[in-house]
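thread: overnight batch results

M.L. [08:02]
morning all. the overnight job finished for the chain we discussed friday. pasting input first so we're all looking at the same thing
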Amino acid sequence: MIMGYPEKTALDAAFYNEFIAPRMPKQIFDVHVHLNLPQHIPFISKQRLSQDWAFQSGLYLTADEAFSRAAMLFPNIEYALAGFPWPIRETKMEENNTYLSHLHQEGIAFPFMGTKPDWDAEKVEADLMHFCGFKPYPDFVATTKGGENSIFEFMPHHQLEVLNRYKKSVVLHLPRKNRLADKENLKELLDMRQKYPDIQIIIAHFGRSFCPAYLSEGLDYLGREADGFYFDTAAVINPTVYKIAFEQIQYQHILFGTDAPILYWHGKRTWTERGYQNYCRENYDWNRHLEGFVAEEKYTFILYEQLKSILDAMDQACFGCEEKQGVFANNARNILHI
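M.L. [08:03]
and the structure it wrote out:
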């Protein structure tokens, strides 16, 4: 494999066959995948890499590699994907978008356009026909991850007006430390929903609710207004988050996403009320081997841990085939008009 991501082991196959395969639907549409070529991020400093474990885990993924790994990870399942660039300052965004638009024209992917907040309306409108919508990101305005920036600083109104006119979608990562539980974020989301009613607003990572407190508090504040938004599952492992989501969010508004290639490693995650700890087998710089090498040999793919959490919560919610296939594929296809 050209990117050197971890291979599947006999333990992984056994875990998949026991806990996942019997309960999986026949199709996956992965709404949250970073696709690029190595030349699209030609340089990222050691300092930047050291500041974010996700950067260290995977910066490059071609479409060919994404499909190859999906065939390995999810055998006998029909796989499709959306795709968007790594939305960070170092990315050559125009070149990455050109690569994605070609994938769309060839029927390989259904991508989102990476945007920068200083691009004018004419620039973002010019190639929109080849994209399902926009993928902005706080990194273009924030000095630190989780910085206290407004959504409208990196997703400006003039770009939202274009998106609304074409009735397309946005995949939105929330800023600020408390993410979905931040009242300023929630007020801005409601403002966006009111001003731009024809945009399908997809909130990434359940609003970065990697721990249940963020999702619970955010949904409590939104009430039935939550029905105006969509949520993707990318990088969310915690089973309680899924229990809350399937109880309080219409299942038609939940979209499966992996956050590939970031979560291709073997490992698991533990949680406190508002924080989490990754445990990993592979020798990434961020891995401190906290449980030791013997314990790590028993880790399966973290993506399999995610799937098990989703499927367990679906069983608890008494989801049938229609609901499962909706979350894993059909909801995204409906929202993106595929």
